[in-house]
Amino acid sequence: MWLSDTQKIGVALTTFGGLFMFLGVMLFFDAALLALGNMLFISGLTLIIGPQKTFYFFARKQKLRGTACFIGGVLLVFLKYPFIGMVVETFGFLNLFGDFFPVILTFLRQLPFIGNLLSLPYIRQVVDRLAGSRTSAV
């Protein structure tokens, strides 16, 4: 595989971070699960792309508002305000990683089962809008 061992560990940590955040939200914003998910997600992201690139990603001038909201949301979760923290963190996450959604949706459209699901009539319109696809009137 094309990933190094450190990057493989980073992918696992990021996946577990997402899982713990999902469980934390499903269990009525359990602060401990959300905090653990945030720690795993951030450490996994750092292992995947490296510490220097992670710093430069979060410190870019265009991403400062998203970075401030994301870090502020993480801090609110750590300070036992999980609902408000997750709202602020989600806003920051969308500002930081919103540019990657078209790439992710294009990849998902190529998968066997998920691609067929995303091609259903009403879902396709929403996915096209999220991906930024343009349709012609002709």
From TrEMBL:
Cellular localization per UniProt: Golgi apparatus membrane
GO cellular component terms listed in the entry, alphabetical order: COPII-coated ER to Golgi transport vesicle; cytosol; endoplasmic reticulum; Golgi cis cisterna; Golgi membrane
Pfam families named in the record: Got1
Transmembrane segments: 9-29, 35-56, 68-88, 100-123
Location, primary (coarse class): Golgi
Any one Gene Ontology BP term: retrograde transport, endosome to Golgi
UniProt entry keywords in alphabetical sequence: Golgi apparatus, Membrane, Transmembrane, Transmembrane helix
Membrane topology: Multi-pass membrane protein
Family named by the database record: Belongs to the GOT1 family.
Protein name stated in the entry: Got1-domain-containing protein
Organism this protein belongs to: Serpula lacrymans var. lacrymans (strain S7.3)
Lineage: Eukaryota, Fungi, Dikarya, Basidiomycota, Agaricomycotina
